[in-house]
Amino acid sequence: MNDTGLVGAQKTLSPVLRAKALDNRLPDPILGDRYAEEAMRGLDPDYDKRRFGTSQMGLAAVVRAKAHDDWARAFLAEHPDAVVLHLGCGLDARAYRIDPPPTVDWYDLDYPAIVELRRRFLPPREHYTLIGSSVTDLTWLDRVPRGRPVLVIAEGLVPYLTETDVRRLLTSVVDAFPTGQVQVDTVAVWAWRTSKWDPTLRKYGTRFHCGFDDPAVLADCHPRLEYVDEAPMNDSPELMAKAPANVRRAYRLLNLLPGLRRSTRIVRFRFIETTVDGH
Ligand SMILES: C[S@@+](CC[C@H](N)C(=O)[O-])C[C@H]1O[C@@H](n2cnc3c(N)ncnc32)[C@H](O)[C@@H]1O
Q1: pLDDT at 71
Q2: What is the spatial distance between Cα 201 and Cα 5, in angstroms, rounded to a whole number?
Q3: For labeling, which of 91, 102, 144, 244 is most exposed (least CB within 10 Å)?
Q4: Mutate which of 111, 155, 183 to test ligand 1's pocket (most atoms within 8 Å of Cβ)?
Q5: In a domain, 39, yes or no
Q6: Is residue 120 part of a domain?
């Protein structure tokens, strides 16, 4: 990677972006994100030149991005006046892929160093604001308009936060908005507990700080928050239909290992306004 000045969890944006960039080269891509290819080349001009440089094993992360996009598009079709809070956005080009109508106000949030990189590698947009802040310093919420439906998307972020911070974030968002949808992904408890030995995370000098065997429990953060459903990742029909044959075979085998099929869970919650009597 170029000398980008990124540290720890910030560096984890790179393997996800690389997977999205490589997906765009498939004859029939899952996400088809040309911005990912451009941003990845900017971040690391040699990203595809090293050993395993063009391996498509990262495609499960692309499936995760597609699941978040599909849920987001459905929510925005029903709520064209929404505010989108895309938290821990990294260099993901979701706002460009979804290209919402001008009635939607989109906020991309990540650490200031990442926001700087976004300004270098991604073009400006209307109705789009970058916030350079840790998501855990909740004063950033004061910069966002209230009183409208909210769509919260946190892709690949929750494992880097403590459970206390995740719960505080969810509670604050539900308290701040009348109605909304929250989309997150979480890792299993075993993946969290063993993360200090994970070679990729070790390379970046980071680890996971929380994990859930049943992420639906996060709905108990707030009486208005409800668990809705889950999208598949490592065994998703899209992965099995579109990944190259060697990648499909590898995932079929990996999915036989206990815990691996559901090592990451992509889940959706929603909340609505309550009346005076609490219903
Ligand atoms: C695995 S990357 C995912 C990036 C992007 N969501 C994607 O899917 O391409 C994790 C991202 O979370 C961000 N992140 C981790 N902890 C954060 C925090 N406390 N506040 C803001 N961003 C955070 C990192 O900087 C990084 O960009």
Answers
A1: 98
A2: 17
A3: 102
A4: 111
A5: no
A6: yes
CATH code, domain with 189: 3.40.50.150
Q: Does residue 247 lie within any of the structural domains?
A: yes
Q: What is the pLDDT of residue 51?
A: 77
- The pLDDT of residue 275 is 62
Whole-number Å distance between alpha carbons of 227 and 245: 35
- 34 CA distance to ligand 1 middle (Å): 20
Closest residue CA from atom 13 of ligand 1: 88
Question: Mean pLDDT in each 10-residue stretch from start to end of the chain (279 residues)?
Answer: 77 96 96 97 92 88 98 98 98 98 98 97 97 98 97 98 98 98 98 96 96 98 98 96 96 93 96 71
Q: How far apart are CA 108 and CA 157, in angstroms?
A: 13
Ligand 1, CB cutoff 6 Å, lining residues: 9-10, 12-13, 16-17, 88-90, 92, 110-111, 114, 134-136, 155-157, 160
> Per the domain annotation, does 217 fall within a domain?
yes
H/E run at residue 157: none
Tokens linked to 278: 């609490």
Residue of minimum CA distance from atom 24 in ligand 1: 10
Q: Residue 165 sits in which domain range?
A: 60-271
Domain count, the chain: 1
